[in-house]
Design a protein that fits this description.
Number of strands: 14
Strand content: 35-45%
Helix content: 10-25%
Number of domains: 1
Radius of gyration: 18 Å
CATH class: Mainly Beta
Low-confidence stretches: none
Oligomer: single chain
Structural class: mainly beta
Order of helices and strands: HEEHEEEEHEEHEEEEEE
Shape: globular
CATH superfamily: Acyl-CoA thioesterase, double hotdog domain
Mean pLDDT: 95
Strand order of the largest sheet: 1-2-4-5-6-3-10-13-12-11-8-7
Largest sheet: 12 strands, antiparallel
CATH architecture: Beta Barrel
């Protein structure tokens, strides 16, 4: 196993000093280019390294251009710091060009306030859901998806299936390491899943044999971290692509633990582009 195969090690930034970290964008964490969820997880983790507070509260990202499978740098600065919260700006730069610009709020672990939860959901036992390989025995999988075990509940369409609502759900467990001790690193799991499957959520509405003639890079993404994720080896994901029109596609996603407790939510806007060579 190479270090880049493990999400915790692959997203670990190397300090350069003065609010700067070096990172690598390896091909094994890419789709048509370095995956948006992966580079966002890098930026979140660097923001966590820079912050004096222990957990993320929210993150807003703007994707400026596609990157290359090569080293890059993340620069982080504190915009506003207080005892209970801090706003940080993180920018991922490669070859002098900005690929990603993010703002991250971090918070204390001991915030007082209101307590209620109207989001609890009953979920099946992950072990009772057949694996991706069992459900799709003849379908090849992109190497990117080897980073986690998949147990789809509502998966991408099988050959010949009719169109349905654009939603994907299922359980996912990262391999070889299911969780990370660092709260920012572990929250990256949710980011990677929602970013990756947001685009795939359109396939049920547009069933096609083989790759879509379109790709859809993110324009932006906003995440809200409601609870820490570090206790959950299995993550349940639901992601929808409720509307696509005029070259844009919107997605909404959520991550729960196996007990049905809501952990992370997010929404994005994507821009449809013709797939190269299609």
């Amino acid at each position: 196993m190479q270090a880049s195969d493990d999400f915790e090690q692959a997203t670990r930034p190397q300090p350069l000093g003065e609010g700067r970290w070096s990172v690598d964008l390896p091909e094994c964490w890419g789709l048509w280019s370095p995956a948006g969820g992966f580079i966002t997880a890098l930026a979140l983790r660097a923001a966590g390294e820079a912050s004096s507070l222990p957990r993320p509260a929210s993150m807003t990202c703007h994707f400026l251009r596609m990157g290359k499978y090569a080293p890059a740098e993340i620069r982080v600065e504190s915009v506003k710091a207080g005892k209970r919260s801090e706003l940080l700006r993180a920018e991922l730069i490669q070859e002098g060009k900005s690929l990603l610009l993010c703002h991250v709020w971090t918070v204390s672990d001991t915030l007082p306030g209101l307590v209620h939860d109207d989001t609890q959901e009953a979920l099946p036992d992950p072990a009772s859901v057949p694996t991706f390989e069992e459900q799709y025995p003849d379908e090849p999988s992109h190497p990117f998806f080897s980073h986690f075990e998949q147990r789809p509940i509502r998966g991408t369409p099988h050959k010949g299936e009719a169109a349905r609502d654009p939603e994907l759900t299922g359980f996912y467990r990262f391999t070889p390491r299911a969780m990370a001790e660092d709260a920012f690193a572990d929250a990256g799991r949710a980011i990677i899943l929602m970013d990756t499957f947001g685009w795939l959520a359109q396939y049920p509405a547009h069933p096609i044999d083989g790759p879509s003639p379109w790709i859809a890079p993110n324009i932006d993404y906003h995440y809200r971290f409601h609870r820490p994720t570090g206790h959950a080896d299995w993550l349940h994901m639901r992601v929808r692509a409720p509307v696509a029109e005029n070259g844009l596609m919107a997605t909404d996603g959520e991550i729960r633990d196996a007990a049905g407790r809501l952990l992370v939510t997010g929404s994005s806007q994507l821009m449809c582009l013709p797939r190269p060579g299609a």
